[in-house]
Write a structure and sequence with these properties.
homotrimer, about 220 residues, mainly alpha, Methane Monooxygenase Hydroxylase, Chain G, domain 1, Put_Phosphate_transp_reg (chains A, B, C), UPF0111_domain (chains A, B, C), PhoU-like_sf (chains A, B, C), Phosphate transport regulator (chains A, B, C)
Chain lengths: ~220, ~220, ~220
C-alpha cells in the first residue's frame, strides 16, 4: 500500500514544476493549431485540424493524470496538493475547451468562421502564452510575486475583452442571421470559444490564490 | 509565507458569518433586480438591467474571493474550511446564474418574457430570501437546528415547483412555437432560469449537511 | 456535536461498500429502463418511462446523500473520505444524466429515437454493468487489482465508441436534417446521451486512481 504509514515518510519528490510547464506547452500548441485552423474552411481541412487538436488533448490528458497520480502518492510537495492538482486540472480544462471548439467546427461544418470568432481564438492563444510564462514563475514568485501578479491581471483583462467580443457578436447574430440552422452552429461554436477564454482566466484565479497563500 | 508553521498559530479569526450574510444580501438584491427586469421589454431597458445585475455579480465575486482568501490563510474557523468555502461558492453560483439569465435576455432580445418565466424569477427571489434567513441561523443552529432545517425544506419545495413550471412550459413551447429562432431564445433563457433555481437549492443541500455534521 | 474531539474516537464504521453497490444497482436499473424506453414513441409512454427513471433518480439521490452523510460523520473509513464521496457523487451524476435524457425526450417529444440514439443507450447500459462489477472488487482489489483494472479499460473503450457514434451521427444530422426544431430536439438529446457515457467513464477514472493510490 503506497500510502501506508511508513511509505508516507519515504522521501519522494517528483518535479511538479517541469510537469506543469510541459502541460502549459501542450496548451500553447493546441491554441496555436486552433488559430491556424480557423483560416481553413473545407470539411477535410477542418477534420485534419480537429485530429491534430484531439491528439494534443490526449497528450494533455495523459500529462494531467501523471501529475495527479504523482500527487496522490507523494508526501512532500512544494505547495498543498490541491493547489497543484487544481492548476493541472484547470489547464487541462482549457485544452478540453479548445478541443470542443475544433470538434464542433468539424461536425457542424458552419460557414467560414467570422472575424469575431478568429479574434476569440487569438485571445485564447494570448491567454495560453501568459499561462506558460506564469509556469516559469512558480519556483520564484514567493520572493518576487510581481511578474506572476501581472500575468494574472493580463488574463483577467483578456477575458473581459472576450466577453465584449462575444456579447457584441451574438447580439448582432440574433438581429441579422435568418438561417436558423446556421445560427445554431455559429452560436454554439462562439459560446464554446468564449467558455474557453473563461477557463483560461480560471487558471489566473488559481495563480492569484497562490500569491495570496504563499507570497 | 503566511501559512508557515508559526503563522498557523497566530490567532486570526475573520468574521465569516457576517461575510456570508453580506453575500446572501447581494444574492437577494440581484434576484430582486431580475424580477423587476422581466417587466421591461425594450432592448435599452434590458441592457440597463443587465448592467445593474452584472455590477452585483462582480460585487458578489469580490466578496466570495475575499471569503475564500481569508479561509485559505486562517487556521481556526467556526466550521471546516470546506463547509464555508462551499457555502460562499454556491451562493456565488446562484448570483452567476441570475447574471446569465439577464445576459441572455439582453443579447438574444426575445419577445416579452412569458408568465412562466416571470414565475421562475419570483421563485429565485423566494429562494434568495430563505438563503438570507438561513445565514442568520449559522451562529445558533447547533443548539436549535429547527429553523435552518425548515428553510432547507422550503428551498427543496420551491425547486420542485420550478421543475414543474419549466417542464410544463417547455412541453407547450415545443408543441406550439413555430418560430425556430424565437424558440431557441426562449428555451435557453427558461433553461437558465430553471438552472438558477437548482443552484439555489444546492445551497439548501449544503446547509442540510451542516445540520447533519454539527447539530 | 457529532464531530467533537471525543466522538471522533467512538468506533463507527458504516458499510460503505454495500451502499456503493446498491447505488450501482440503481444506476443499472435506470440504464435498463432508458434502453427499454427508446422502443416506445407515444408521448404518454415517454412520460411513463420518464416517471420511472425520475423515481430511480430520487432513489439514487437519497442513497448518495446517505453515503455522504455517513462519511461526514465517520472517522474510520476503508479509503480516504474523498475517494468514497467522489465515487458516490459520480455514480449519481450518471443516474442524473440518464434522467436528463428521459426528461428531454418527454418534454421535447421528438420523432422516434434513431438507431444511433439507441446504440448510445445500450453503451450506457454496458458501462453501468462494468461499474456494478467494479463495486464487487472494492474489498479485494488491493490484493488483486487485475479485474478492476480491466473494467476501467472497458469503460474507457466504450466511451470512445460512444464518441464515434455521436460525432458520426451529428455530422450527418447537420448535413441532412432540414427541420430546424426537430434538429434542436435530436441534437440536444443525443448530446445528453453522449455526456452520460462520459459521466460513466469518469467513474472509471476514479477507480483507476484508487488502484494507483491503494493497490
Amino acid at each position: 500500500m503506497k500510502n501506508s504509514f511508513f511509505s508516507r515518510f519515504t522521501p519522494k519528490e517528483p518535479k511538479f514544476f517541469p510537469l506543469l510547464k510541459q502541460l502549459s506547452d501542450v496548451l500553447s500548441d493546441s491554441a496555436a493549431v486552433l488559430v491556424e485552423s480557423l483560416q481553413h474552411d473545407l470539411p477535410a481541412e477542418r477534420a485534419d485540424y480537429y485530429k491534430r487538436i484531439k491528439d494534443l488533448e490526449r497528450k494533455g490528458d495523459k500529462l494531467t493524470h501523471l501529475i495527479l497520480d504523482e500527487l496522490s502518492t507523494t508526501f512532500i510537495t512544494p505547495f498543498d496538493r490541491e493547489d497543484i492538482s487544481s492548476l493541472a486540472s484547470c489547464m487541462d480544462d482549457v485544452i478540453d475547451g479548445i478541443n470542443s471548439c475544433a470538434k464542433r467546427i468539424t461536425i457542424y461544418n458552419p460557414r467560414p468562421i467570422s472575424e469575431s470568432g478568429k479574434e476569440l481564438s487569438r485571445l485564447i492563444q494570448e491567454e495560453a502564452a501568459y499561462i506558460s510564462k506564469a509556469m516559469d514563475e512558480l519556483e520564484t514568485f514567493r520572493k518576487n510575486p510581481a511578474p506572476l501578479r501581472q500575468y494574472c491581471s493580463k488574463l483577467h483583462d483578456i477575458e473581459n475583452q472576450a466577453d465584449d467580443v462575444y456579447e457584441f457578436f451574438i447580439t448582432r447574430l440574433f438581429e441579422e442571421e435568418k438561417d436558423c440552422i446556421e445560427l445554431i452552429k455559429i452560436k454554439e461554436i462562439m459560446h464554446e470559444l468564449e467558455k474557453t477564454t473563461d477557463a483560461a482566466e480560471h487558471v489566473g484565479k488559481l495563480l492569484k490564490n497562490l500569491i495570496i497563500k504563499y507570497a
